[in-house]
Amino acid sequence: MTREYPVGLLFSTTGSYGAIGRSMLNGARLAVEQINDDPGFGIRLRAVEHNPGCSLNAYAPAAEDMIGNGVRNIIGCYTSSSRKEVIPLFEKRDALLWYPTHYEGFESSANVIYTGAAPNHHMLPLVDYFTRHIGRRAFCIGSNYIWAWESNRVLREELALRGGSVVGERYLAVGETDFGSIIQSIFTTDPDIVFNSLIGESAYAFFRAFRAACVERGIDQVGRYPVASCNLSEPELRCIGPDAVDGHLSSSVYFASIETRENQRFVNRYNAAFTDEKVPSAEAEAAYTAVILLAQSLREAGSDTMQEVKLCAARQRLAAPQGEVTIDPGTFHAYLTPRIGRSRPDGQFDIVYDAGRPVAPDPYLINSTSTLEAASRRPSLRIVS
To answer: How far apart are CA 22 and CA 275, in angstroms?
Structure first.
């Protein structure tokens, strides 16, 4: 008899960042379906879903409900605030959170497996790229919580190492969309690049407002004030809208435009299954990858207890849509392949930098050197301008 394990899916599919939450849930559902449709895989998964609705106070009760009903492994959370909100519960209840999104780093919990990008996967390549190709003076705008605070701190330190500087730094509450004074500050400080760490509706509104303000002043926003992010993906380009969607830089480990057979299969399956959403995001791919790695670990462990699953997780390998993914047994973060994309009018990204192979996670930025410098010594590096 095939053994079935419950798997929690904790994603906000409504609210300020609901577009990304839906994309993550879609990726996880696709992986659950793939496992259950394969009679030779050896186990089945039973998805248990909760939608916290982007309310920070709803995450811990939702996780408590799942754990209390026998769910030992939960894949979910998008914001770092929500992750930090639930970690004490996972530690108390001996459960395991699989966190499938990019984040700011400087954390390594015994009760979390991180399948999203660490700062050396997205922050360092982005800083390397724009200081080489654009300039060294940055204006930072972000949502007022730990993701933006820490991302901007890393950016400031990395720019200083390269002789650059942050000329302005502003924060808004999640969901805030009044950018008038901030946009004026951008024009006043005249940076080379704008670094965006806003999330959800705040980010989409900023892209529209900034483009409109530049058009009103006769400024080519893409050429004069390019915007760079580590959290901009294809579903969000649709949310920005056609008038402001093109020319933005995004540092990630996955884009739907990656030209591999594995990714094409993933994109085709995703688009066929979720016709209203269209086009997977990096977070959808990370959630998909987390479910597959969890399923492989459950199969090998023959149990869903935290310690046995973690032990097996460190031995898994996966030919994911982005490329090969493995879990580092020291930090339980993933080896991932850094990339940088530039958004197109059709809502996709042109890949302008590709590291060419998985890079070891370095959540505390202890061992990292310039990703581009390291990659430039490898013949697999591809930089496209």
So the answer is: 13
Report CA-CA distances (Å) from 219 to 170, 188, 211, 246.
Answer: 22, 14, 9, 15
Of 214, 237, 197, 226, the residue nearest 133 (C-alpha): 226
* Claim: this prediction has a pTM higher than 0.70: yes
Q: What is the distance between the alpha carbons of residues 254 and 113, in angstroms, rounded to a whole number?
A: 18
* φ/ψ (deg, to 5) at 368: -80, 140
pLDDT tens for each residue of 188-236: 999 999 999 999 999 999 999 999 999 999 999 999 999 999 999 999 9
- Residue ranges matching CATH 3.40.50.2300 in the chain: 3-117+259-335, 120-257+338-383
**What is the full DSSP assignment across 200-214?**
HHHHHHHHHHHHHHH
| Residue 112 host element (H or E) | strand 112-114
Do the beta carbons of residue 28 and residue 287 sit within 8 Å? yes
**Fold of the 120-257+338-383 domain:** Rossmann fold (3.40.50)
Beta pairing class for 317-320 and 323-327: antiparallel
